[in-house]
Amino acid sequence: MPCKREGDDTVKLIAKRPCSFGGRKFYIGDEVPRDLVLDPASQEKLGILSVLRDREEEPAETFTREQADGMIAEAVAGLTGEIIPAEPYVDIIIRDEPTGVVHAAPEEIRQVFAIMQANAEEGARRIAEVTDENILILLHVADSRKTIKNAARERAEKLFPAREDPGLATAGEENADAGPEGDVS
Questions:
Q1: pLDDT tens per residue, range 109-128
Q2: Using CA of residue 13, residue 27, residue 35, residue 39, what is the dihedral sign?
């Protein structure tokens, strides 16, 4: 048997095709004990084994999927000069919206559905914490409850006072809501 050299314990040998070492059979994906192979480098060149070296040190830092997507988007933006969103957006076509389309991120859509599944009072409380215009527009358009529609409209007026956003008030509601309204701010 070959002598074990220093550092060999950090090497794994994986069979790339059926083979035999030391009288033992190994199949694709099996780990072959290091002490059964005389020259792993030549076996790797022949395509019989893959030589995998384990890193002894721990990686400096690990990242979540969202962090990695963000870093990739930043790198692409640096190369092309354009910003690519890390998260795919969904185009939601809305008849009453002036632009006709709301570009919503999956997280925004999840938040809309969470609010729509809550009762009206709880939904209105959650809307008071929303800071995203897309969420407010989608709630106003998709939820039929007057409490939710009003809460979304009032929150949008408070967050975006300079905008006159007809997407948050349809013609039918403008007539229904006519009358004195208190100051929202």
A1: 889 999 999 999 999 999 99
A2: negative
Q: Which of 94, 87, 182, 172 shows the shortest CA–CA distance to 139?
A: 94
Instruction: Tell me the three state secondary structure of residue 25.
Output: strand
**E strands, 28-74, where?**
31-32, 49-53
Q: How many CA atoms lie within 13 A of 63 on its CB side?
A: 8
Q: Write the pLDDT tens digit of every residue in 64-116.
A: 877 787 787 777 666 666 655 556 777 777 776 566 778 788 888 889 999 99
What is d(CA 142, CA 149) in angstroms, rounded to the nearest whole number? 9
Q: What's residue 56's pLDDT?
A: 55
Distance CA(40)–CA(60), nearest Å, equals: 30
31 has which bridge partners? Answer: 14
More confident residue, 169 or 135: 135
Distance, CA of 185 to CA of 108 (rounded, Å): 25
> DSSP assignment, residue 92?
E
Residue 159's CB: how many other CB atoms inside 10 A? Answer: 13
Encode pLDDT of 145-176 as tens digits.
999 999 999 998 998 886 554 445 443 344 34
